[in-house]
């Protein structure tokens, strides 16, 4: 897929600021737990730095060596306002194919990043790329939502996920292609609304497990959140850990 097409799928950077803060805090807690279980390597973690490095910076602050892969040069420029290239090196490119130097005990994608790859083929390649970066016994961690199709009324294509005075958000689904769009209407101080969209491909847990097996990994654990809450049929998201054999 051409870079401009992938940027369309990964759009909505304004809205991403809000969720990256939550993802960073969660990774700071959960990432260290996974690292403690994993093997030693010359680097601790590799992943998408997120807006302003909210995923990578907390781990680096705790002494974990981190490297990143990021498609957007402007987002890397924002990361550089917090940390230097020596502290967190970042490779500009596609997370499905771009390589980072070194071997890692942890590769992570938090807060629905896997959905930014808008075809199944690209998501499969992302798992293979993660496996190429991991030492034997290393872990690949993905945090992603579960599609809300059970809440989709017959004949309808949209499911609201946030309705308040300040923000209205809803997802529209194409159940044939598994392509979806998050729509955001955010209230401005003057009373007008800013509209934003985020294109993504939704993916089921069992589909991710098969992608992991194709990449030579096996499921180690799956919880509803970073606290390890059991994953059930009613869970709206999951944090899954696959291990390289």
Blueprint of the fold:
Blueprint: H1 3-9, H2 13-37, E1 43-47, H3 56-61, E2 66-70, H4 73-79, E3 90-92, E4 104-109, H5 120-133, E5 134-145, E6 158-163, E7 167-174, E8 179-187, E9 193-201, H6 205-214, E10 217-223, E11 237-244
Parallel strand pairs: 1-2, 1-4, 2-3, 4-5
Antiparallel strand pairs: 5-11, 6-7, 7-8, 8-9, 10-11
Helix pairs in contact: 5-6
**Classification by helices and strands:** alpha/beta
The rounded Rg comes to 18 Å
Give the amount of beta strand, in percent. 25-35%
Number of strands: 11
Ends apart, CA distance between termini: 30 Å
The amount of helix comes to: 25-40%
What sort of overall outline do the alpha carbons produce when their principal axes are compared?
globular
Instruction: List unreliable stretches of 5+ residues.
Output: 1-24
CATH names the topology of the largest domain as Rossmann fold
Per CATH, the class of the largest domain reads Alpha Beta
Domain count, please report it. 2
CATH homologous superfamily descriptor of the largest domain: Vaccinia Virus protein VP39
User: Can you give the mean pLDDT?
Assistant: 83
- Number of helices, where a helix is a run of at least 4 consecutive DSSP H or I residues: 6
Order of helices and strands, N to C? HHEHEHEEHEEEEEHEE
Strand order in space, largest sheet: 3-2-1-4-5-11-10
What's the CATH architecture name of the largest domain?
3-Layer(aba) Sandwich
Largest sheet: 7 strands, mixed
